[in-house]
Amino acid sequence: MVSKHRLLPLTALLGAGVLALAACGGGSTGTATSSGSGSSSGGSAAFPAKGSGELNLYNWTDYISPELLKRFESETGIKVHLDTFESNEGLLAKLQAGGTGYDVIVPSDYMVQQMVQLGLLQEIDTATFPNGKNIEPEFDDVYFDQGRTFTAPYMHGTTGIAVDEAKVGGKVTSWAEFFNPPAGASGNMGMLNDSNEVVAAALRAVGAKPCSETPADYQKVQALLSGVKGKLKVISSDGQIDRMTSGETTLAMMWNGAFHRASVKNKGITWVYPSEGLPLWQDNFAVPKGAHNVDNAKIFINWMLDPKNAAEATNFVGYANAVTGSDAYMDKDLAKDPAINPPADKAALAQPVPPCSQTALDLYDKVWTDFKS
């Protein structure tokens, strides 16, 4: 099982009021529908005794076990409709465009803060849920949601580099080397379709910090991204597990849980903690305003805070959760993977990143638009 003591140097930073960046995933989609059971009451109402009808879940791609959802349906009588996204920005755009048919969404830390400021989330007061007591203490008062008014924790992890050294013809130890890779990686590189992840990594590669407000740093980033663009196989957060497993990509920016799942089948790939550092992020359950099945949403979130259910989710996606007691039910091979359980000499490289200012976000958007065009 995963040792929380080994993870503590990373997760303890959450309670200090800092954490950010993107999230996770890898492959399947579904269809969300909206209909009508459940109330639209806020978090102060009595917790619903039981649910019925349906739940519309909007989650990262390949980020929850289908078997777990089937068991939830069997135990609660609530039918789950799953739809997926591949970036926080895609999630936000969907909600801002009027996509109000979802009951539970899964934004990352910095995006929660942004959504709260935009008035897009309902108060649910997770601490009052029957299983709210199971949330590990360091995940209670996070900077983006003090007291867990709007969210419940789902998974947390890091974003690093996956490489097949034998196929690319050399080692990759840093973001600088990732963006200037060995010759054998050309044409076989994978990049996340996520502006926050890519631009932040490129800023580190040019010697700057994520969320820099210095325009000159972004000129360097633009040049770096322009140089690597022709070497990419794909820019996508979907399907990265399958591509790395099959060898279609041999060097990729990857989330650590996705790497773990790929490495189970492809023993030739290695996880890299870039020497310039890498982000520690957290994903969360939230209920958007306009949700039709709020009671069902609360029942689902509470159900996911049960240790056995949280462990089953972790065993499928390969990321650490924040539920006390779940360790006892986790797969033992998670503890053996250095991508999930960082070695002592690498743990300090993974750090939370504060939310970017609007000035920095505008610079991110400019660089990303240029890169994607």
Give a topology summary:
Layout: H1 4-11, E1 53-60, H2 66-76, E2 78-85, H3 88-96, E3 104-105, H4 109-117, E4 151-163, H5 165-168, H6 175-179, E5 189-191, H7 195-205, H8 215-229, E6 232-235, H9 240-246, E7 251-255, H10 256-265, E8 270-272, E9 278-286, H11 294-304, H12 307-317, E10 320-321, H13 333-336, E11 350-351, H14 358-372
Parallel strand pairs: 1-2, 1-3, 5-6, 5-7, 9-11
Antiparallel strand pairs: 4-7, 4-8, 4-9, 4-10
Percent helix, as a range, is 25-40%
- Whole-number tally of structural domains: 2
Classify the beta-strand content into a percent band: 15-25%
The biggest beta sheet reads: 8 strands, mixed
CATH-level-2 architecture of the largest domain: 3-Layer(aba) Sandwich
Q: Radius of gyration in whole Å, from Cα?
A: 20 Å
Name its key features:
Extracellular solute-binding protein, transport, Sperm_putr-bd, 373 residues, polyamine binding, three-stranded parallel β-sheet, eight-stranded mixed β-sheet, 11 strands, 16% strand, signal, alpha/beta, D-Maltodextrin-Binding Protein, domain 2, 14 helices
Question: Explain this structure to me?
Answer:
- By secondary structure, this protein is an alpha/beta fold.
- It has helices spanning 4-11, 66-76, 88-96, 109-117, 165-168, 175-179, 195-205, 215-229, 240-246, 256-265, 294-304, 307-317, 333-336, 358-372; strands at residues 53-60, 78-85, 104-105, 151-163, 189-191, 232-235, 251-255, 270-272, 278-286, 320-321, 350-351.
- The chain contains 14 helices and 11 strands.
- The strands form 2 sheets. Strands 4, 5, 6, 7, 8, 9, 10 and 11 form an 8-stranded mixed sheet that branches. Strands 2-1-3 form a 3-stranded parallel sheet.
- It is globular, with a radius of gyration of 20 Å.
- It comes from Microbispora catharanthi.
- InterPro entries: SBP, Sperm_putr-bd.
- Residues 1-22 form the signal peptide.
